[in-house]
Amino acid sequence: MKILCVSDYVDPLIYTQNVKEAFPDIDLILCAGDLPMDYIDFIVTVFNKPTYFVFGNHDLKEYHFYHRDSHFDGNRPSRYEQSMNGHGATYLGFKSFINENLCFEDPETGTKTPLLIAGASGTMRYNNGLCQFTDSQMKWKLLKLVPKLIYNKLKYGRYLDIFMTHASPRHIHDHEDPCHVGFECYNWFLERFKPTYMVHGHIHLYDLREERVGKYFDTTVVNAYAHYVIELPMKTTQKKDN
Hints:
Elements: E1 2-7, H1 19-22, E2 28-31, H2 37-47, E3 51-53, H3 63-66, H4 79-82, E4 90-91, E5 95-105, E6 112-120, E7 123-124, E8 132-133, H5 135-143, H6 146-156, E9 162-165, H7 184-193, E10 197-200, E11 213-216, E12 219-223, E13 226-231
Parallel strand pairs: 1-2, 2-3, 3-4, 6-9, 7-8, 9-10, 10-12
Antiparallel strand pairs: 1-13, 5-6, 11-12
Helix pairs in contact: 5-7
């Protein structure tokens, strides 16, 4: 299963009608925040593949469509407004999904299994803006995912395949300025629930020497800035010849 990850930058290599020629075998798209919704619309339309997204700290014009308690004027959005929020992509903020339509072969058991995915929007609080959280607030949101993750473990033998966020974990790809500090609770989440991948955005890669892919316990942590392709194996075990 090949997965196109994008974030933070409208990449001209993606934003072109010929993108499918460059990326012909993509099965899933992950949008890790700070992307215009019309860019996500384009990606959904051109690839016609399952697409998940989270919000960052700048792309918030439609954030209130997905979070009623953040409506700018303090009122609940109308049913008309709520019907506008599709964009053909699935919002992954503070949610966990089992995607039965995206299956791959479990590398440990060799059995066919659905994709297990969860996500979180936003960044560390730095100016009390929308979609910003303290570490404690974010951990509380992650704790609400735990029942579904335990269900995954009982049924599929693992908690999660992919955890997508906008911000990074603490001390993994993050920076020391208040806006770009990572969440320590993400480190706890990775250590406890062991997703195969964590995909994040928020950290712009202006220096090609800066690390894009790191490791934390059993999880590969990927910075999706601009674009990056990852893969979940269809089959990783081979029978030995006798």
